[in-house]
Write a structure and sequence with these properties.
The protein has 286 residues and is of the alpha/beta class. The protein has a single domain, classed as Alpha/Beta hydrolase fold, catalytic domain (Rossmann fold, 3-Layer(aba) Sandwich). 36% of the residues lie in helices and 16% in strands. Strands 1-2-4-3-5-6-7-8 form an 8-stranded mixed beta sheet, sandwiched between helices. Helix 2 crosses helix 3 and helix 6 crosses helix 7. It starts with 5 loop residues before the first strand and ends in a 7-residue tail after the last helix.
């Protein structure tokens, strides 16, 4: 029987399906939330208990005016994993993350490697260009003073509202897909997500680059469990020259899909089959 959704100190965790647990981690953007992982939930719920938290500041989780940082998101994942293990036992669990969510998942797995059996990273951030991002531990790429500027009380929320108008959300999704053939349900879910009270707080930290880790490559290099990374060939998220720093690591394997940054939307059957193989123990699922 499916475990009902639950909350952890303001963090809402969606639960679906029955079977061994798997954790899904959505991306960060102006209208993010667990809805971004919908095709994976629909597929995995037949064989797994799927845990998909709305990260702090998004979805059904609390959207308070506070300092949103990589540390906050990493600690949220630690809390969710502890809750999952309290329900299913202490065995390591697999996890799938999208875009900037990959950085938070990588930090959580680097800090508590025994908690994770294998990681699937979809369109992972931090690998643009050839620069090796091995900054000081815990450092971010925040632009000094930018958050104070964009979040100023006299215009911060208004700026967010302009960036999340339905037409603008469609524009950014087209850039993510690299085409006009976006998922219309995804668009409607994103528009609705951006209308919740307090929805502007976390995205304005994202806009100021404060959620990107300066030590991201060191995090990726610290991962010893099997890692399957994938990305697309179209749209704004196709620069993965930084993967050269990970290319020779025997636990990392890559798949490039013809399409945009969300291959599990555009190539549902192929991606689902590869993910099934990865979760079953194959190192090179596709």
């Amino acid at each position: 029987m499916t475990t009902p959704d639950f909350r952890l100190d303001g963090l809402h965790v969606h639960v679906a399906g029955d079977g061994p647990p798997v954790l899904l981690v959505h991306s960060i953007n102006a209208a993010a939330g667990a809805h971004e992982m919908r095709p994976l939930v629909e597929h995995l719920r037949a064989t797994h208990t799927v845990y998909t938290p709305d990260l702090p500041g998004f979805g059904a989780s609390a959207r308070a005016d506070l300092a949103y940082t990589p540390r906050l998101y990493t600690d949220a994942l630690h809390a969710v994993v502890q809750a999952i293990q309290a329900r299913h036992g202490p065995a390591a669990l697999p996890a799938v993350a999208l875009s900037l969510g990959c950085e938070f998942l990588a930090r959580a797995a680097a800090e508590r490697p025994a908690a994770f059996s294998r990681l699937a990273l979809v369109s992972p951030t931090g690998l643009m260009g050839t620069k090796a991002r091995r900054g000081p531990p815990g450092a971010t790429r925040a632009v000094p003073g930018l958050h104070a500027l964009v979040a100023a009380p006299w215009w911060g929320e208004g700026l967010f509202r302009q960036l999340t108008r339905p037409a603008v959300v469609r524009y950014f999704l087209r850039r993510t897909w690299g085409s006009d053939a976006i998922d219309e349900t995804m668009w409607a879910e994103a528009v609705a997500a951006a209308r919740a009270p307090g929805a502007h707080h976390a995205p304005l930290h994202f806009l100021s680059a404060g959620l990107f880790s300066a030590d991201v490559l060191a995090l990726y290099e610290a991962l010893a469990m099997p890692v399957w990374a994938s990305h697309g060939t179209r749209g704004d998220f196709t620069d993965y020259r930084g993967r050269v720093h990970l290319q020779q690591r025997p636990n990392w394997h890559w798949t490039v899909y013809e399409g945009g940054a969300l291959p599990f939307f555009e190539h549902r059957a192929a991606f689902a089959a590869a993910l099934d193989r990865f979760l079953a123990g194959e190192s090179r699922p596709a």
